[in-house]
UniProtKB/TrEMBL annotation:
PANTHER family: CYP9F3-RELATED, CYTOCHROME P450. Gene3D superfamilies: Cytochrome P450. Keywords: Endoplasmic reticulum, Heme, Iron, Membrane, Metal-binding, Microsome, Monooxygenase, Oxidoreductase. InterPro entries: Cyt_P450, Cyt_P450_CS, Cyt_P450_E_grp-I, Cyt_P450_sf, Insect_CytP450_Detox. It comes from the Eukaryota. This is Cytochrome P450. It is a peripheral membrane protein. Belongs to the cytochrome P450 family. It is found in: Endoplasmic reticulum membrane; Microsome membrane. Its cofactor is heme.
Amino acid sequence: MVDAMTECSLEMKTRLQESADNNSMIEVKDMAGNFTTQVIGSVIFGLQFNSIKNPDSEFRKVGHDLVDPSNKRAAIMMLGHVFPKLVKMLGLSLQSKETVSFFYRVVKDTVQYREKNGVTRNDFLQLLIQLKNNVKLVDDRSKEDEHLRHQIELGDNKAEQFEMTESLMTDQCFVFFLAGFETSSTAMSFTLYELALNPDIQERLGAEIDEVLEKHKGKITYDAIHEMSYLDKVVNETLRIHPPSPNLTRMCTDSYNLPGTKYTIQKGDVIIIPSVGLHHDPKYFPNPDKFDPERFSEENKNLRPKYTYLPFGEGPRICIGMRFGLMQAKVGLVGLLSRYKFSVCEKTPIPMVYDPVALFMSAKNGVHLTISNRK
Ligand code: HEM
């Protein structure tokens, strides 16, 4: 998958050359969305969405529609948190019927095409097709994941048997598309924003990227990304300040008295855990508005209580795309930062203004920055 990400990253870099030569102002959230849409198209569906070259491509439009902030969507979301049964009864949906059916048609056509013509590809859809046809999937994760594999195997034994129908397949693809492109592009754009506000950190990161890429003959590989420890700190700190998913939801499985209070959460209650609140609590993150990647040094990480940093959630329902999301955001960022410099311009929102009705936490009027050549 990293090869597909690198290919998209190179294409994005090339497309931005002219803007950098002219020191132009660009909107980086949309640019990052074009990138992640193309990555997801390739690794989930094995389709060429062409969203970098053509930001008006059909899938990009569908992506915009899926996450477009609107008062109606925000109202349904809030109603769903408080009265989930009512929302279900009224048949209210966050997504328009046209968008959903377009999406389902594409998945169905792709599956049918592959099955009819015996086409196989190394992507997520192919894994689902194999499950549909009762093919046992080969687990090719590396040894370092042995613990995780063990957990999954334990889980598998307990899992209910299910049939992978065409509709279940399209649901899975739909969720991965929706959860996969906007979160990572938001993470990328907030990282560029923070780097523009903190040029010394941008410079230090640029030096790390140069050094590691030189070691890897200029190639952005899985290993090269893992060697960039400062990049990891920078991205973690960005997700602390601007977590794309600012809240987690859980249903309480047992009555629980909140220690030191008269309040009890009853079994069956749905609760909202405000990760963004924890991330900005000075008790855990002193001077919380300061962008300081060193909060994520091994030493500092160990000083904090567990579960105070939750950009991907925690427990058995932790984000299933965490490593994928981090990898695509980092590959995109490395491609850009190896050649370009980003700085604030007159349209940059300082401080950041969030969109109050957006599906994911995002900048209200986009993130405008000036792009120029580094060297
Ligand atoms: C920087 C990028 C991302 C962030 C910040 C993020 C964040 C999250 C969060 C907070 C959750 C809820 C976890 C919980 O309740 O404990 C979640 C769930 C999920 N995410 Fe992500 N995500 C990212 C990227 C991705 C990508 C790339 C994919 C797929 C390609 C993905 C697929 C999912 C799915 C399917 C779930 C639901 C998992 C479940 O309920 O079992 N995410 N994500």
